[in-house]
Amino acid sequence: MDVNSIRPSRRTLLRGAVAGTALLSAPAILRAQTKELVVGGAAGHKPWVESIVVPAFEKKYGAKVIFEGTRSLVNLEKMQKNKGSQYMSVVQMDDPVMILAVKEGLLEPLTPAKVPNLAEITPAAIHMDGMWANYLQPWLGIAHNTKTMPTPPKSWAEMFDPKYKGRIVIPSLQNTEGLPLLFVAGLLSGLGIDAAQADVDAGFKKLASLKPNLLTIYTQQPQAYNLLEQGEASMIGPAMSSYALERKAAGAPIDLVAPAEGVFAMPSGIAVIKGGPQSDLAFAYVNELLGAELQAQLAGPTHSLATNTAVPRPAGLSADLEIHQIDWANVAAKRNDWISRWDREMAL
Amino acid sequence: MTGFRRLDPVSLLVAPAVGYLGLVYGLPLLLLLGHSFVVDGTPSIASFVRFFADPFDWMVIANTLRIALAVTLVSLVIGWPTAIALARAKGAAQAAILVAIILPLSVGVVVKAFAWQIVLRRDGVVSQALVWLHVWDEPQRLLFTETGLVVGAVNVFVPFMILPIYSVLKLVDPRLDEAAATLGAGPFFRFFLVALPLSLPGIVTGVAFVFSMAVSMYVVPSLLIGDRFQTLATLTGRSFLFMRNPQLGSTTAVVLLVLAVAVVVGSAKLSRRFGGAS
Question: I want to staple A217 with a disulfide (CB 3.0 to 4.6 A). Which of A94, A323, A345, B227 is the partner?
Answer without folding.
Answer: B227
